[in-house]
């Protein structure tokens, strides 16, 4: 069995910055305590694309995720805690809106809006999360990330239940490529792409990529105009 340290080192050496893989170092979330969380079940003609990503509901008919989570067919699952639950809301994605300046080689502008085929019905288990209120807003340093990805190196598949972990950002200021960073193994790695970086109850970021020691999140405050214009039009 490959131990945790060797697994992280191998990922870093072989592929450098990769799509996030799992919530590592966290715990199971209280069931349905993160009603904005969305599980994406994806089908793509490109076998190298991920089959599962996460996202978060920001309006009855729109989900935000990472742009590299594009697929030819996506179904979103809302109100999920355990992925084996039967009584969850499933809605097809009508259209993808990746950021027009997204680069699948550098992960620049790795953010995407998903227009749902119909509006989600809000309940105790399903509702949206608010975004930062102003452009270029500083990101609080202490935040939370949730996801269903693989959570330890002995597990072949993803976690059956939603897990979460606290992360501390290196800076409150977004970089010139619209990112913030957290360091260390705790946090998202491969499989939690598109999850929200939640700070003080608001979604300040989107999980984009990382390796064993570095986790990158796109700054949502830098994209507020694009998000608003896309959803309105």
Automatic annotation (TrEMBL):
InterPro entries: Peptidase_S1_PA, Peptidase_S1_PA_chymotrypsin, Peptidase_S1A, Trypsin_dom, TRYPSIN_HIS, TRYPSIN_SER
Chain coiled-coil ranges: none
Catalytic activity, as annotated: Preferential cleavage: Arg-|-Xaa, Lys-|-Xaa
Keywords: Disulfide bond, Hydrolase, Protease, Serine protease, Signal, Zymogen
Signal peptide (residue range): 1-20
SUPFAM superfamilies from the UniProt entry: Trypsin-like serine proteases (SSF50494)
Gene3D superfamilies, A to Z: Trypsin-like serine proteases
GO biological process, any: proteolysis
One Pfam family linked to the record: Trypsin
Enzyme nomenclature, EC number: 3.4.21.4
GO cellular component, one term: extracellular region
Peptidase S1 domain location: 23-232
GO terms for MF: serine-type endopeptidase activity
Subcellular compartments: Secreted, Extracellular space
PANTHER family: GRANZYME B (PTHR24271:SF81), KALLIKREIN-RELATED (PTHR24271)
Listed name of the protein: trypsin
Organism of origin: Umbra pygmaea
